[in-house]
Amino acid sequence: MNEDVNSVSPTLGFIIKTIDHNGYKLNIWDVGGQKTLRSYWKNYFEKTDALLWVVDATDRLRIEDCRDELHNLLQEERLSGATLLVFANKTDVNGCMDEAEILKGLQLDAIKTHKWHIMQCSAITGKNLDEGLEWVVQDAKERLFLY
After folding, report:
1. What number of CA atoms fall less than 13 Å from residue 121's CA on the CB side?
2. 34, 107, 120, 138: which is the annotated catalytic residue?
3. Is 90 annotated as a binding residue?
4. Is 58 annotated as contributing to ligand binding?
5. Each residue's pLDDT tens digit, 13-57
6. 83 marked as binding residue
7. 18 among annotated binding-site residues
8. Cα–chain-centroid distance for residue 50?
9. Which residues, in sequence order, are bridge partners of residue 56?
10. Parallel, antiparallel, or unpaired: how do β-strands 50-56 and 83-89 relate?
11. Is residue 11 over pLDDT 50?
């Protein structure tokens, strides 16, 4: 957020950031999605309240792989209390999958174990990034005891 998008590249490993959002500190673990990194994901699940799953809305060829990884991930015991926000990225690109196509491709309606929400976004323009974080914060406020 508020970063020069021209200098951002895909995450190769992981990045930890703390974001202040409307008076709440959000600790964000950006974990790369390459197949070689997926076996390490489980090392970052402790005390996870929300999972933000970013889908490339222009990549129809990998939507099934994306679905399989997501559904496998949601079976992890340490993620049982986490809610899921699916960010459909690159929805500002002509010919991309729309929300309905992503919902169907990821089989989100089959997810009964986690509260979920899908939201279009653009990492380039920032569209809906704040709104997505606001959804996560509101969801946490409804579920968790905040002192």
Report:
1. 22
2. 34
3. yes
4. no
5. 567 788 888 888 887 776 655 565 556 556 667 777 888 889 999
6. no
7. no
8. 8
9. 89
10. parallel
11. no
DSSP label of 13? S
- The answer to whether 112 and 21 are in contact (CB under 8 A) is no
Residue type, 46: E
Q: Which domains does the chain have, with CATH numbers?
A: 5-140 (3.40.50.300)
Q: Is 113 annotated as a binding residue?
A: no
Tokens standing for residue 36: 């070689």
Instruction: Compute how many other C-beta atoms are within 10 angstroms of the C-beta atom of residue 20.
Output: 9
CA atoms within 13 A on the CB side of 36: 4
pLDDT tens, position by position, 49-94: 888 889 999 999 999 999 998 998 899 888 888 899 999 999 999 9
The dihedral sign for the CA sequence 127, 66, 140, 44: negative
Residue 34 annotated as catalytic = yes
- Other beta carbons within 10 angstroms of residue 74's beta carbon come to 17
